[in-house]
Amino acid sequence: MSGFLSVSGLRLSYGRTEAVKGIDLEVRQGAVVSLIGANGAGKTTTMRGLSGLLKTAAGSIRFCGEDITNAPAHKIARMGIRQVPEGRQVFAEMTVDENLSLGGLQVGDSADFRRRREAVLDRFPRLRERLTQHAGYLSGGEQQMLALGRAMMGGPKLLLLDEPSMGLAPLFVEEIFKIVADLRQDGTTILLVEQNAQAALEIADHAYVLESGRITLEGPASDVVNDPRVIAAYLGDH
Ligand code: ATP
C-alpha cells in the first residue's frame, strides 16, 4: 500500500450499465501510472470516479490517508486531485488568462497565485504569447496545454490526464509527452489514460490494462510493454 492513491474494488455504473467492475489500483507518490485499454474499456469512467464526478457504486478510494469515496468533486479537487478531461474542455469564450485563473480559484494567497501563473507560463511560452486570446481560437495542441496549465494552477498532487494526445498533430503529440516527462521529473504524480499505448508505456513507471471494466494485467511498465498479450492487442508491430 502506497498510502498515496489506493483504489479497492471500485465499481462505477451509468444507471444499470456497470462500466467499471471492481478494480484495484495503486498510484505511488511521484510515479507516472498508465491505464491503457480499448475504446469503451472504462478508462474515462475510472477517471471520473476518482475525481468525484461519478458516484461510486461499490469499493473505496483513499488519497493521502483519507477516505474520499463519494466525497464531493470540489473537495477532491481541493485535496489536490486535478483532472484534465478528455477533449480538453477549455472555456472557448474566455481568454487564455481567464481560463488559467479559473484553475487557480482555490489558491487564496495572491502571491502564491502569481507564482503559479508564472510557473505555468514559463512552462508553456505559447500560452504567454496568447494570454488575451479567446481559448476557442487556439489550436488543439494549444488547448491541451491550456487544460494542463489550468490544472497546474491548482498545485495538483495528482494529475489525472485523460487522452492528452487525442486528435493532435504528431508534433504536438511529441510535445505533450515531453511535458508529461517534465512534470514527472518535477515529481508530479500522474495517472495517464492513453490510446497511444506505446508512448504511454514508455513514459510510465507502472501500468494497468483495463478490458471491459476489469483490470486484466498490471505491472512495471517495462514488463507490460513486453507482454505478448499487450503487444498483440495494443502495440501492433512496434
Ligand atoms: P474511450 O477511449 O472511448 O473514451 P473509455 O475506456 O474511456 O473509452 P468509457 O468512456 O469509460 O471508456 O466507457 C465505458 C463504458 O461505459 C462504455 O461501454 C460506454 O459506452 C459506457 N458509458 C460511458 N459514458 C456513459 C454515459 N454517460 N452513459 C451511459 N454509458 C456510458
Q: For the CA atoms, what is the radius of gyration? A: 17 Å
* Ligands (ions, cofactors included): adenosine-5'-triphosphate
Stretches where pLDDT is under 50 for at least 5 consecutive residues are none
**Major sheet summary line:** 6 strands, mixed
Provide the residue-averaged pLDDT: 91
Short description:
Residues 5-237 form the ABC transporter domain. With 238 residues, this protein is of the alpha/beta class. The chain contains ten helices and ten strands.
Would you kindly provide a written description of the structure presented here, covering whatever features stand out?
The protein is of the alpha/beta class and 238 residues long. It has helices at residues 43-50, 73-79, 96-103, 110-123, 125-129, 140-153, 170-185, 197-203, 221-224, 228-235; strands at residues 5-14, 17-27, 32-36, 58-63, 66-67, 81-84, 158-162, 189-194, 206-211, 214-220. The strands form 2 sheets. A 6-stranded mixed β-sheet has the order 6-7-8-3-9-10, sandwiched between helices. A hairpin with a 2-residue loop joins strand 4 (58-63) and strand 5 (66-67). Helix 3 packs parallel to helix 6 and helix 4 (110-123) runs antiparallel to helix 6. The two termini are 33 Å apart. The model has no long low-confidence stretch (mean pLDDT 91). The structure holds adenosine-5'-triphosphate. Adenosine-5'-triphosphate (ATP) binds at residues 14, 17, 19, 37, 39-45.
